[in-house]
Write a structure and sequence with these properties.
Layout lengths: L11 H8 L3 H10 L5 H13 L6 H8 L4 E7 L6 H13 L3 E7 L3 H14 L4 E6 L13 E7 L13 H13 L3 E6 L5 H16 L3 E7 L4 H9 L9 E4 L2 H13 L9 E3 L5 H4 L7 E4 L1 H17 L12 E4 L18
Parallel strand pairs: 1-2, 1-3, 3-4, 5-6, 5-7, 7-8
Antiparallel strand pairs: 9-10
Length: 342
């Protein structure tokens, strides 16, 4: 295509005219759209998409002496936090920033040294640390640094993402349905999330005066769930299983079926993570949805506020985890005249 035939990029003023707002309002939308009224935000969002408007980051950086680039630094590990990073990047892009994800081998000191290098390079306007860092190395960076530290040295979740309060709600709900004998197939106990869920499970069982047939320390695999059910003795009385995650729960369900037990007729099963496979399984799996995206959005919002010299945004009031009741849970067999699982 010749230069004459090439479509000219839309301008911020054209977006403003189509949306019926001022160009400063469009600029505010690009920096932080959540600060606009919902009606105004929708009008600007429509105009941006209709005109395929893209901010001129080069021109902006020349005016503001900013690079319009952010860095997210984290440890290396087998559990890449893709959903959090995608959400964080989306917020950054909407504010006119590009994002570089930097995975650093080594411990907190190595990550701190890499952060120091990034800050000194002048190539980023701010840095988000998602894994622990040595603060002694990052005392005077010259660019804003926000520490989320939501993951450990192997990218295993920490903090709110490792919370387990919903196990209390799960056991209380199953108890209200009439279940009295439980089994917990736990995750790998090297993970804070697995330890927390096990602890809350045991505390709730004791507080409610229920019976736990046992806790099986699994490894997050479907096989660990299958093996846990296969090993139960006949007449054990277990009618409800709290599984460490959805994969373990699916193993539990398969193990139950191979023993001739129906879910949820003979055995109620709860998972964790709200994976698609559980949502579309038969029966659909009761589980806990984890809003990993909120963690990424909140962390980047804090970093953007630091860059702009604004107060940190108020923490979100909604919880990261949400219990979802589906088809894999029901009253126990003895509650409606059926015999216990044998």
């Amino acid at each position: 295509m010749t230069d004459a035939g090439r479509k000219r990029p839309s301008t911020i003023h054209e977006v403003a005219r189509l949306a019926g707002v001022s160009h400063t309002t469009v600029s505010r939308y690009l920096q932080d759209k959540d600060n606009l009224k919902p009606k105004t935000r929708l009008k600007v969002e429509y105009a941006v998409k209709a005109l395929d408007y893209r901010p001129n980051l080069v021109a902006r950086s020349m005016r503001t002496r900013r690079t319009n680039r952010l860095a997210i630094v984290l440890a290396t590990g087998p559990h890449f936090p893709g959903r959090q990073l995608a959400a964080a990047s989306e917020v950054a892009h909407q504010a006119g920033y590009q994002v570089e994800v930097v995975s650093v081998e080594g411990g907190p000191r190595a990550r701190a040294a890499r952060i120091d290098e990034l800050a000194r390079s002048g190539q980023v306007d701010g840095i988000l640390a998602m894994s622990s860092i040595d603060l002694k190395v990052t005392k005077s960076l010259g660019v804003p640094l926000v520490r989320s530290e939501s993951h450990d040295e192997k990218l295993r979740v920490l903090g709110d993402l490792a919370g387990a309060a919903e196990v209390r709600e799960i056991v209380e709900h199953l108890s209200s349905l009439g279940h009295r004998t439980f089994l917990h197939v736990a995750g790998d106990q090297e993970y804070a999330s697995a330890r927390n869920r096990k602890s809350v499970y045991l505390e709730t069982i004791e507080r409610l005066g229920l019976h736990s047939f046992g806790v099986i320390d699994g490894d997050w695999s479907g096989q660990s769930g299958y093996d846990a059910i296969a090993a139960l003795p006949a007449g054990c009385g277990v009618t409800a299983v709290v599984a460490a995650n959805d994969v373990v729960a699916m193993g539990v369900i398969r193990g139950a079926r191979d023993r001739g037990w129906e879910v949820p007729r003979d055995l109620s099963v709860f998972g964790w993570d709200d994976e698609d496979m559980g949502r579309f399984a038969t029966p659909a799996l009761s589980t806990v949805a984890v809003d990993r995206e909120a963690q990424g959005r909140n962390a980047i919002a804090r970093l953007l506020a630091e860059i702009r010299g604004e107060p940190a945004p108020e923490p979100s009031v909604h919880t990261v985890n949400r219990v979802i009741h589906r088809e894999s849970t029901a009253p126990p067999p003895q509650a409606d005249g059926r015999s216990e699982a044998q």
